Amino acid sequence: YRTNPALDKSLMAVAERSMRRIRQVFAIESPESPERVEFRTFEKRFVNAMDDDLNTPQALAAIFDLVRDVFRGRDNGIDVSEAVDCIKNLTGILGFTLETPPDKSGLSDDEINALIQQRKLARDEKRWSDADALRENLADAGISIADSSDGTTWSRE
């Protein structure tokens, strides 16, 4: 609140990618496990940052670090449900709206899934330039994809 932020298209694109990463957390199905992702440290960092003259960069860093741990926890079969609830709470304090933006791509879900399958085939056949081109085409259409050990997931920007 003490500075005049310089907004340009590249910064807005970075911010939107960051929000998309946070939104992806809410689509995670938490594995059933007695082990849970530790979130209280991040929650405390967030509160301390906000208490330090509304240090939102540090508060956001705590959120993004927790988001990273949630994805790691999911990949390791750890229960992430409480950590996801914490992220929802912390982003709500900052006034973030986490609704998915309206579809701008013009592509149906089936068309997107078909392009992702084409990309997977290209990767399996080690046609890296074709796979990269398909990824770029999806990105240009406003579709973000993420590869993990469970396969490829996508979301609309």
Low-confidence segments, given as residue ranges, are none
Extended strand count:
2
User: Helix coverage percent of residues?
Assistant: 55-70%
Total of DSSP H or I helical runs spanning 4+ residues: 6
Largest sheet strand order: 1-2
- Main β-sheet: number of strands, strand sense, barrel status? 2 strands, antiparallel
Could you describe the 3D structure shown?
It is a single chain. With 157 residues, the chain is mainly alpha-helical. The chain is built from six helices and two strands. It has helices at 9-25, 40-51, 56-75, 81-93, 109-124, 128-140; strands at residues 143-148, 151-156. Strands 1-2 form a two-stranded antiparallel ribbon. A hairpin with a 2-residue loop joins strand 1 (143-148) and strand 2. The two termini are 27 Å apart. The mean pLDDT is 86.
Per-chain topology:
Blueprint: H1 9-25, H2 40-51, H3 56-75, H4 81-93, H5 109-124, H6 128-140, E1 143-148, E2 151-156
Antiparallel strand pairs: 1-2
Helix pairs in contact: 1-3, 2-3, 3-4, 5-6
Fill in the keyword field for this structure.
157 residues; mainly alpha; two-stranded antiparallel ribbon; 6 helices; globular
Give a nutshell description of this structure:
By secondary structure, the protein is mainly alpha-helical. 58% of the residues lie in helices and 8% in strands.
